[in-house]
């Protein structure tokens, strides 16, 4: 599942507004809105946070390739 679909599924499953979802992700409404509209893409850390919150609320259909890429990118950040 791609990150944008995961965000939309989280919003639908929890009935959160974009503001609430952004706060849950630790980001801003503007950033989340840009991701959902395809204007920008989440960073590796953003993808990791989306994946973690998706797991917390029971959306576990995350492609392993997405998580593998996050692991590699996160290692490079440290």
SSE arrangement, N to C: HHHHH
The total count of helices amounts to: 5
What best-fitting shape do the alpha-carbon axes yield? globular
Rg of Cα set = 12 Å
Helix content: over 70%
Q: Structural class, from helix and strand content?
A: mainly alpha
Strand tally is 0
Biggest sheet, open or closed, and with what strands and sense? none
Oligomerization state of this entry?
single chain
Distance between the termini: 26 Å
Unreliable stretches covering 5 or more consecutive residues = 63-78
Content of β-strand: under 5%
Mean pLDDT: 81
3D structure, described in words:
The chain has 5 helices and no strands. 71% of the residues lie in helices and 0% in strands. The chain has helices at 3-14, 18-25, 29-36, 44-56, 64-77. The protein starts with a helix and ends with a helix. The protein is mainly α and 78 residues long. The radius of gyration is 12 Å and the shape is globular. The longest helix has 14 residues, at 64-77.
């Amino acid at each position: 599942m791609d990150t944008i679909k995961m965000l939309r599924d989280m919003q639908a499953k929890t009935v959160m507004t974009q503001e609430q979802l952004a706060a849950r992700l630790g980001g801003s409404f503007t950033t989340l809105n840009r991701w959902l509209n395809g204007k920008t893409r989440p960073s590796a850390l953003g993808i990791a946070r989306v994946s973690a919150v998706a797991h917390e609320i029971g959306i576990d259909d995350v492609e392993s390739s997405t998580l593998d890429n996050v692991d590699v990118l996160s290692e490079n950040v440290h």
